[in-house]
Design a protein that fits this description.
The structure is a homotetramer.
Chain A lengths: L1 E6 L4 H10 L5 E7 L8 H4 L11 E2 L11 E4 L3 H11 L5 E4 L9 H8 L5 H6 L1 E2 L2 H10 L2 E3 L3 H15 L8 E7 L14 H4 L4 E2 L7 H12 L5 E7 L6 E8 L7 H11 L6 E3 L17 E8 L4 E8 L3 H16 L15
Parallel strand pairs in A: 1-2, 1-4, 2-3, 4-5, 5-7, 6-7, 8-10, 12-13
Antiparallel strand pairs in A: 8-11, 9-10, 11-14, 13-14
Helix pairs in contact in A: 1-11, 6-11, 7-9
């Protein structure tokens, strides 16, 4: 059994890691941190997990001297920066779920996040999107787990950029996320009655995930640029992403477009291509590590439209982190992640 | 007191007409039709309205020989076609909330709706968007009340097309609607557990409101073409529309863009411009006839982003129909429509 | 025009007062307080009301020297206690929406609220439930507006206790409230994802509304005692109350029970009796000042079951406060409150 | 590997059986029926399960001649009656999720269900509530899987009736269910906008689960009688049950009451006792086979209050059916059911 630690266990990503890891046969959670709840049994702090863990929450600094095979950082960005080095030991892989080490360009990071990361760590970190970086992930010591929106945007776009089927500018990414994506800290904006029966855009063309998406896609097609607007859906889980791109091909058909997706992802265990006339829906991936993708062609405007649905806490965060852990530890990539979606 | 009839009183648009008309001091609802509930008191069929009306539901054909000042058709498209002429009398104005007479091109109608309308009526009908067609509405005998999505898309786009600030092609309209927009007939797709916790796109680049939006915008800028994808939000009311357009101006600023909106709509009683850094939210227009609009500039991509929020049953249907009635009867345009939004 | 002030304008009760008062033809809102937003235009702080008020938020103490006809206190309990006397002037009626002055027994207040009220004010205050206290309300200078749960429980129970049809002990009140009842301050418990998809009881047999309900019912039937459990429904508005009482009559019929309700409330403008086989639903009173009530008989167990539905922010708070204001100012009791429910 | 069949695979209970069975290592789903979708791949009909099954939906009568170890009937009551005998073969255990064979008294069945069951089968069926009937379940050939409401009511009540701590009359069961409990067939009542933002009681003191609950409890305390009112919560999954019973003990304490529960269920794998001051919540059992229970004492009224939370589709239906299957096949009772709840 490999020993792992979950830091930030009582946030939504941490809870989700614990939910999923309880089903993993080759890994044991050896320690959990939750600064505010230090000293309390983790299963009293997370009532859904009552009976699943006998661990006591610790403060992060109590874990600096313990050895783990894998350490998951489900912490605020700033805190990931401040503790990451403490866990980057010889035999430990660190999987950071925050955005702290995702951007290769430290200046860009400063601009979008408003504080400094550790440039050297960002430089060495591997971006943990297995569908794009599988081989590098296997060898990484620090894995920067992708953001939820980037996961939903990059996977559908990559094959079309790779084949030059769409322009790499003028791409519109209109994303709609459930509220768990905003984390567990209460705020006026996320108070139940402010969200329920509402629907809004936020941070239009100014969200931190923009440089992350562009960085990943530019590795495929140099100079890729997107306009990105996220929206808040009055529901808990799920990101639905609608992407509009300009076709470079005059005469492509819907069937050819679907074949691009099917060919690109035919061996991917967690990518499901939804063929016309069906379309993805967040309620058919909920609780699972799948990303469901579809494509359509608006022939009237030579526009290619892509759709994806993920559970932001699974494929968009903790499930993908476990997928990365599996790759890193040499396990079957799907271990502990074979749960079907919970519908309805 | 003017006498009006509400046909299709027990659908969501019909119920909303009755809710709003009960507050109108110069109009009396003289008759309601509801074929399936004919013979029953309307306030037993619509429990929210218990005590507000003493009318009995009738079959539509029982109303052919009665005279009304205004007849609202809150009927399925096909039924509007089949009964409209019966009510188009010398002194009666017909306001059709269906899509039956919105498209000037009868061939286009056939293509998108799959059946024939009455070309002659469509030709004479006035498109009932007061912000665009106020003067014609005043004189119309048949008013084609706009669709909910077109209302949310045309009002924000019109000023920018009129001034040549955006290209009239490559416009992306990504709209998100509550479930009441789909009407009151039960179906598997709209069964509560299928919608709740879900989020999906439907009819991408193939929704009937596409030609309606393009027709209205092409009157402003010949040849306007849009890519339109509607989505279903697990909530009752509200349409949030996010629109992406290519800027024709190299050096325009956000402030200039906001001034375009403010100038265009400064005298409009139901258009509210939401200035940066605020953005619209469907929960601040709910139950009211307002359309809240904002604009942003994605300078990195020369993309202008527009946002609008409406209550699909009010400004997107019945409230706008009453606004049209007020114009038609020479009343103050806001009569019966001055309710503030219900928040939260 | 009478001049009123709304203190605590940016909480849910305050917002609802402003929504409803904007529709009242004989009253003008002359001042609003909102300590945290002092200096800002009220309609920028409450986006739903944009354009409805030209007032600027003030600090409460800025209003001590101004004269108003009516002052609404939509404040925390403690703050009502601390400022009430400042507004109780010769020609001013104070309507307190908090619980500060509802309990006649100051010791009981201390026990349930954990702090002291002003016994003398509580003693002189009139409990503002018009269906029970109309005549006293007309003459009151301080009106203690009822709690939301008490409104939903007292109105259905009163007629049956008055006629001795049910026992006054062993009464079970099982209430289910939307989240706005918990106020607008963000907290972990009311963070959107914690509430959505959840359902729970809270403060079982220990909620502050217990002594309030028992006090009001004991004026009708000395010694009335209830077991009260409130629950949180993942929705914004509405309280549904299910009440179980032991029948004192061996042979009463459902029809006789319904007649008790109809007779008791036949002249009440805001009480609607829902006859079998129909039942109330919070979605048919939403946005309105109605309380819908029904009764059933469980003959197998000699149990009488009562049901009520209210909008907690209207009949359960701000609407009832305006009803009290109307009584106090000698207006028609329904002025400004004739809006139909918003369905769906 | 044992071979099982799931009849009625595309209803919510059927889908949930397939979700859970995909995780069961000793059982293979050998056939599924879905009359309306016969001939289609089951994973195209249930998009959430895409990739999990390679089976084709069949008509029920195509399965009459196949041998299975276990047959799950996730069918309407009437259809269970009509096909049950076809599957009750020598080596087959039938687990019926409908209500067809739950009531021992065929006359009572007729009265509450309005049609005839097969008295002989009802007589031989074992009521599949493992916490009460574990040993009989192991030997049963026909297992009548409990209703969702009965599961939530019987488990908390049984220990207190067994010990004579509460009266067996005057018990109030006030239950609140998510919408999936009403099945997957669309209807006006369950159309999204009719449910969302609503809350209502239905079938008060007249629901079919009353005789089922009374039958089970009367085996513990002869003559137990309940008043039962179910309510509809605008959410998908979960039943929260609040139970009020009269204490027979003058001086019992909360601690003693909690000990009754802990003692009764200390070896039960799926019963979790939630100790004061915590209370259950449906959102901490969602997706899992747990029932979370708590107790409170209303000393002022000698009333004992019980609370339970289940996922109606798991412990209230398909999870419990698999628990019964495990018992029947001699497996560890928890096989395939060790998933933690999905929170939030």
């Amino acid at each position: 059994m490999k020993r792992v630690a979950v830091l930030g266990a009582t946030g939504y990503s941490g809870i989700e890691l614990l939910r999923l890891l309880s089903l993993h046969k080759d890994v044991a959670v050896a320690a959990v941190s939750a600064d505010k709840n230090a000293g309390l049994p983790v299963d009293s702090v997370i009532p859904s997990l009552k009976g699943f863990y006998k661990l006591t929450c610790q403060k992060i600094d109590q874990l600096f001297d313990t050895d783990f095979d894998v350490v998951f950082l489900a912490l605020p960005h700033e805190q990931s920066v401040s503790v990451c080095r403490k866990f980057l030991k010889k035999n430990t892989v660190v999987i950071d779920i925050s955005g702290a080490f995702r951007l290769k360009d430290a200046g860009l990071f400063k601009k979008w996040y408003g504080f400094e990361t550790i440039a050297e760590l960002s430089a060495s970190a591997v971006y943990g999107l297995p569908e794009i970086k599988r081989e590098q992930i296997k060898k990484a010591r620090l894995i920067a787990n992708p953001g939820c929106y980037p996961t939903g945007a990059i996977i559908p776009l990559a094959p079309f950029l790779r084949k030059g089927i769409i322009k790499n500018t003028g791409i519109i990414v209109d994303a709609k996320s459930g509220v768990t994506g905003a984390g567990r800290s209460p705020s006026q904006d996320l108070h139940f009655p402010e969200v329920s029966d509402g629907f809004k855009a936020y941070k239009p063309a100014s969200h931190r995930h923009i440089p992350e998406i562009e960085q990943a896609l530019s590795e495929i097609s140099q100079g890729t640029s997107i306009t990105f607007v996220p929206h808040l859906v009055p529901t808990n889980r799920g990101i639905f992403t609608t992407i509009y791109a300009v076709s470079e091909k005059k005469k492509i058909t819907l069937q050819e477009l679907e074949e691009v997706l099917m060919e690109a992802y035919k061996d991917e265990p967690f990518v499901r291509i939804i063929r016309s006339p069906e379309l993805p829906n967040v309620n058919t991936v909920k609780g699972s590590n799948f990303i469901d993708i579809a494509v359509r062609l608006d022939e009237r405007n030579s526009t290619i439209i892509l759709f994806s649905a993920i559970d932001n806490l699974v494929k968009g965060a903790s499930g993908q982190a476990i997928q990365n852990m599996n790759l890193s530890l040499g396990f079957d990539e799907t271990l502990g992640l074979t749960l079907p979606p919970v519908f309805p």
